[in-house]
Amino acid sequence: MSLKVFSQGVSRWVVSVSLLALGGCGPGAPETTSESAPAMEATRQSLSTVSLRASTTATGKTVSSLTLAKPAGTVAGDVLLARIINRNNVAAVATAPAGWTLLRSDQSASQIKAWIFYKVAGASEPASYVFAIDAANYMAASLSAFSGAHPTNPIDAQSGQKNGNLATMDTPAITTTSANGLAVWFGSQLWAGSTCPTAPLTPPTGFTEAFDECLLSSSTGILFDLAWKDLGAPGLQPAFNGVSTLPNTNIAQVVALRAADAPTCSAGDTFAPTWTLVGSVSAPRIIEPSGIAASRVTPGAIYVHNEDVNDIVAISSTTVGTLGSFTVDGVTPQDWEDIATGPCPTGSCIYMGDIGRNSASLPVPPNTFYVYRIPEPNIGAGQTSGTLTAEQFPFVYPDGAKDAEAIMVHPVTADIYVITKSGTGLSKVYKMPKPLPAPGVTSTLLFVSNLQLPTQPNDANYSYTTAAAIHPCAERFILRTYRRVYEFRAAPGAAFETAFAATPVALTDTVEGQGEAIEYEPNGSGYFTMSESGTPFRLKRVARQ
After folding, report:
1. Residue 31: half-sphere exposure toward Cβ, Cα within 13 Å
2. pTM of the predicted model, to two decimals?
3. CA 174: distance to chain centroid?
4. How far apart are CA 263 and CA 518, in angstroms?
5. What is the DSSP string of 71-128?
6. 335 CB contacts (<8 Å, ≥6 apart)?
7. What share of the chain is helix, strand, coil (3-state, %, to 5)?
8. Distance of alpha carbon 32 from the chain centroid
9. CA atoms of 286 and 217, how far apart (whole Å)
10. Does the bond joining 38 to the residue before it have cis omega, within 30 degrees of 0?
11. Which residues of 354-367 are buried (b: 16+ CB within 10 A; e: fewer)?
12. How would you classify the pairing of strands 322-329 and 385-389?
C-alpha cells in the first residue's frame, strides 16, 4: 500500500511511503491501493467553492475488479468521481456499484480504455466501492471526493478523447453554464518499462496535480494522474491540454463540477406588472450612466459606465452600494454607449461599446467605432479600485457608418452583436467576425438581421434602441427603447440568432425619461434598468413570475 500526501504552494513537496514497493511501482500483490490528501496552497485565492477533499487509487494485474477505498473525510453531499482504466481490451464493459452514473468512456483502437463514473455521497456510504469489468486485465483506478459541488446537479460539462502515439494529452474544449466551478482533469497513458518513470505526466497549465501514479509492467503498464483547476466565468473554456515525457497513446478527460451556490439559469415568459426600486446610486463617479452589465465573476455586482469618460463603477444589485471603482487605462472614449460581460481568453471580460455617433464630444461623426475588451476585476479577492487594461477592436460597417447604442455578448460563444438605432423602428443587427482580429486591427462587421420594432406616430423615441442584453440561457434577448422594453424569444431548441426574426414581446416598462441601460439578472430571474437623466440615478428591477 502507498500513502501519498501532497502539499503545494510556491513549490510542491511529495512524500511517498511504500509498504510494498517504492512509489507503488514494484512487484507485490495483484491489487494495490493508495490514498492522497488534497493539495494545500497557502497563497491560492480560490474563485470556486468546490474543492478536492481527498483521493484514493488502486491497481491490479490480470484482475476483473478493483476495490477503491472511500476518500478520507467524505461526507454526505460530496461528489465522487471514479475513473477506471483497462489495458488491451477496449471491448470490455465496466460495471459500477449501485447508485453510480456513467459520465463517459473513451478508448483507443485496441490498447486502452477509460471510464468516468460519478455519484453524490449519501448519509451512509460504504468504506469501499468495487468496480468490475467483464474480463480479467491490467487495471488502474482512482476515486476522488469533492466538497462544495451542487448536490443535485453537480456536472456542468465534460469531454475527453484518445490521443494517438503522442506526448500531448489534449481534451476538447468545454462550455460551462455556471460560474466558479472546478475543472477536474484525468490523464491515462500506456506504459511499458522495467521501472516507473518519475512524474511523467504534467497536467494542463494552471492545474494542481493531486497524484501521478503508475501500474508497472514491461508490456501492459499504465500511467495515470488527476489534477484540478478553479474556473471563473461560465462559457467556452480553453482546451485543457497536458503533456507526457513519453510519446505513447493516451486518454485525456475533463469534468467541470458546478458549485453548490451556482445560480441555475432559467427562463420564463411572465414578468411582474410593476417595477421595484432597488435604490439610488450614490457613487460620485457615476455622472451619466449609459449602460449596465452583471458581473460573471463577482456575484451580486453590476457594472455601470458613463457615456464619455473612462470610468467603470461596480455597484451591489441588492443595495446599490459601491463595490469597486475603476478607470480604463489608455482609452479616450468617443461615445461609449453600452456595456456587456461575457467569456474571453482570460475567463470573463467587460465589453465596452464605443459605438455612438452623436456625442457632443464628436464635432465630426466618426466612421470607425470600437469595442474594448477588459478582463473583469476580481472584486471578491480585493480588487476594488485601480486601472483596468483594455484591448481595442476597431470596426466599420459593411454598408456605411451607423449610430448605435446597444451591444450584446453571447454568454457561451462570445459572439459580439451591435444593434443600430433607428427612429423608423427598423434597427439592424451586426456582429464582429470570429475569430476576432488582433487588437488594433480594423474589421468589418457582418450583417445578421433586420430588427423591426413597434413605432408610434411622431415619436421617434418610441423605437430608438438604447440598450440590449442576451439572456444567460442564451435563447432570447431583451431590448429597450426610451419608451418600451421588449423581449425577443427563439423557439425552443432553435439557434439563438433566430430570435432576431421573432415578434417582440412587450415587457414591463420602468418609465424612465432617458432610459439607456438594461440587463438580465445572472440567473434569469428578472431584469434591471437605469436612466441616464436625473440625479440621483436609480436602479430598478422587474421580477420574473
Report:
1. 19
2. 0.60
3. 9
4. 20
5. PTT--TT-EEEEEEEEES-TT--EEPPTT-EEEEEEE-SSSEEEEEEEEE--SS--SE
6. 307, 308, 354, 355, 356, 357, 358, 359, 361, 362
7. 5, 50, 45
8. 37
9. 67
10. no
11. bbbbebeeeeeebe
12. parallel
What 3-state DSSP class applies to 295? Answer: coil
- Which amino acid is residue 385, in one-letter code? S
Q: Is 341 exposed, middle or buried (0-12, 13-18, 19+ CB in 10 A)?
A: buried
- Cell triple for 428: 439592424
Which residues does residue 375 pair with via DSSP β-bridges, in sequence order? Answer: 349
CB 394 within 8 A of CB 401: no
DSSP 262: P
Which residue, chain included where needed, has cell 461599446? 353
CA distance 431 to 266: 25
At 368 the three-state DSSP class reads: coil
Instruction: Return d(Cα 429, Cα 421) in angstroms, integer.
Output: 10
What confidence tens digit (pLDDT) does each residue in 340-371 have? 998 887 778 999 999 998 876 677 889 999 99
Per-residue pLDDT of 486-505, as tens digits, reads: 999 999 878 899 999 999 99
3-state secondary structure of 379: helix
> Collapsing DSSP states into helix, strand and coil, what is residue 204?
coil
**Cβ atoms of residues 351 and 339 within 8 Å:** yes
Q: Which amino acid is residue 51, in one-letter code?
A: S
Closest CA to 14 of 216, 146, 210, 197: 210
> What is the model's pLDDT at position 12?
28
